[in-house]
Each structure stands twice: as structure tokens, then as C-alpha cells.
Amino acid sequence: MVNEVHRVCERYHAAIELIGARWSGAILRAIFTDHHRYAQIKAAVPGLSDTMLAERLRRLEIEGLVERRVTPSIPVQVEYHLTRKGADLEEVMQAVVTWSHKWLPLPGQPVGEVLEAGVGGERD
């Protein structure tokens, strides 16, 4: 049994692909930190295009992590909120934040500084 292969759990793999898709984690983090309107989410995630934000919000909505709420007014107001399924990711998201602060450098910070200190610096 030296060469026994243990396959990655399919549910685990699907979960990582869902929250790890480009921009998805950052969008979820923005919603977790009370950015609910489209413009607020876009402003909270530098470099995110309108097209990609719309696409990711649709995907997160289809997957049941986010719900789109429309308030009939002039102009119409649209907000995005976490569903129970999405809110259940809170501990996971916080664990990723904690891990990133410990192990990942800030832009422009040498990787060696993080590895030596074991701390990534500023907090979100």
C-alpha cells in the first residue's frame, strides 16, 4: 500500500473552485464587509471590471451564495446579500484572511520578510 492514491474529495474540489474562482473570493469578502451595492463592491475590489463583476455576481447567485435584491425606486436600487449558504462561509473566509496576513506579502513587500516574521503586515 505504499503507492495508494487518495483522490481529492469531489465536494471539496467543487467548493475550492467556487470560492477560488478569480475575483469570487474578493467579491464575497466585500459583501461580508457590508458592501452590498454594485458600485460599492466594485470600489472595494481594485482592478475588477464591470463585466467580470456582473459575471461573478450572477455565478454566485446561481450557486446560491448571494441573492440579488431589487428595490423599486427611481432609479432602481439593486443590492447583493449573502444567503444562509453564503453566510456559512464566514469562518472559512476569516481563516483565509488570517492565513494571508501570516504568510503572504503585501504588494511590493519582499517574500522573505513575510517568511522570516511569519506575519504579513496590515490587516483588512
Can you give a write-up of this model?
Strand 1 (66-71) and strand 2 (77-82) form a beta hairpin. This protein has a two-stranded antiparallel sheet with strand order 1-2. 12% of the residues are buried. Helix 2 (24-32) packs across helix 3. The chain is globular. Helices cover 52% and strands 10% of the residues. Residues 120-124 have low confidence and may be disordered. It has helices spanning 10-20, 24-32, 38-44, 50-62, 84-87, 90-103, 111-117, and strands at residues 66-71, 77-82. It has 2 domains: 10-79, Winged helix-like DNA-binding domain superfamily/Winged helix DNA-binding domain (Arc Repressor Mutant, subunit A), CATH 1.10.10; 89-124, no CATH class. The chain has 124 residues and is mostly helical. This is HxlR family transcriptional regulator.
State the name of the first-level CATH class of the largest domain.
Answer: Mainly Alpha
User: What portion of residues is helical?
Assistant: 40-55%
Q: Can you tell me the CATH superfamily of the largest domain?
A: Winged helix-like DNA-binding domain superfamily/Winged helix DNA-binding domain
Strand order of the largest sheet: 1-2
CATH topology of the largest domain: the name is Arc Repressor Mutant, subunit A
**End-to-end span in angstroms?**
45 Å
**Major sheet:** 2 strands, antiparallel
Contiguous uncertain segments of 5+ residues: 120-124
Number of strands: 2
